[in-house]
Design goal:
The chain is mainly beta. The protein has two helices and 15 strands.
Amino acid sequence: MKQMLLFMMGLALALPGKAQAPPGKGWIALFNGKDLSGWVNNGQEKWVSEDGTILGESTVGHYGYLTTKKTYSNFELRVKFKPETDGNSGVFTRSRITGNSPKTGPDIEGMQIEVDPTRHTGSIYESGHRGWVAMGTPACEQAIKPRDWNELEITEQGVHYVTRLNGVPCVDFTDPHPNFSEGVIGLQLHTGGGVKIRFKDIYLRPLR
């Protein structure tokens, strides 16, 4: 009986629709687990709420961004993601949509924490300006679970950036030439097509 109870509890935790409780006091849920309230779909790519997750899937092969309506400056952010294919994605912070190209989709500026099952998840790329600004540790490169749920932790306070992947330190970076201090949180589908990824348990704790 005890073994059966433990099995059922483990099964419930593994189900996609089982939302995790907030990490603690002061944390807010950016995704309610039911619909995309509070988010904006920029572009023609597919973003839907499905089974307690946000599903992003390439349709026309352009860039696609699902961004929060609210902007944020200093915060801790936790998000779980599951790549269902190889392909490039990311979590954008302190960002803004700057335009739209008929050939490639929306343009964005801001800081991107890379999400890619093949390389550099947890590293930081500045979109619209410098490109790669901080690369993850060798241990971080090995921490990715390509077809399973992963947890990405991001802390941004002033010019200081810290990222962790599945509890493994990735980046501890002080930006000498900051270009962004506030903006939306965004989820990315990279141009080129063939990307399918899920996100869930997206929580943010504002910092002073």
